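Backbone shapes recur. Consider a single case.
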Amino acid sequence: MLRWAVTQEIAFRNPAAAVKPPKRTHNPARPYEREEAARLIAEAAKTRYGPMVIFTFETGLRRGELAGLKWTDIDTEQRAATIRGAIGQVPKRTWYKATKADRVARIALSDHALEALHAQRSQQAKDKLVAGGLYDDQGFVFATERGGMPSPVGISDAVRRIVKRAGLQGRLAHAMRHSTGSWLIRAGVDVRTVAAVLRHSSAATTLNVYAHEMEGAQADAVRHLLGAGAISDGNRMATAAAFGAKSPRKKRGEGGTRTHMSSHSAAFEAAASTISPLPRAPTAGSDSRRASPALLARKLQWRPNQV
């Protein structure tokens, strides 16, 4: 208003121009430690949100992106998911919208993420049987019990209830995404790869959010160089796989939408077994059979047909 008054020559100067605004402080959500994440997963397995919690830890999706994910966005053969949109929500209104920064991103899916999707398919089959003709299938992966559009607030409320029952007070749904980034940093994955996995607009954003984790990783590196052996072989392997990865490129997709194709899938897969709170599963290219929902159930005490 004051700036406008100056342009209209109503005021000679803008007295607010000399005022320095306070610095914006960033208070990131406290990430889950692996033992805490395992407790959350175990408690979530008693509800219909078990697969969603696992999938969130494995992908680092935002609440809106998680709610907006559709089955048509999932490519199990290519082990990837395309993040095309998200769910926006304000009081009395929920809608499907473009993703943050208007990007379409393709992310790699780990074995555990794929198994969570299989379990979610089973959960939706149960929902359809219970709801009968009232089920309105709108194609969302983590749909409501009657097939409708999920909401970010609904996801937060569900996670809050599970967190409380697990005895992990003070944690919000966003802490799962923050945990994914923190685990990647601790595993030695380079910042550009982490930025690509979390779909940050730039690596500078990642550095700002995870500066405290970077400091810890640097301290571990120094101790390792001094012979303390603070970094595990798994972390060194993840670092070697991620080091030198090219920064993500921006391309033009259909309709002028920017397409953000991650070139860091290999680095992410190399670190997946290091960062995941779940038991290690064989990779798709190994001779061992892939982890099935039953195998995960035995390891996690989680039966998919009871989520």
Residues 32-180+248-269+277-306 form a domain with the hpI Integrase; Chain A fold (CATH 1.10.443.10). The longest strand covers residues 85-90. DSSP finds 13 helices and seven strands in the chain.
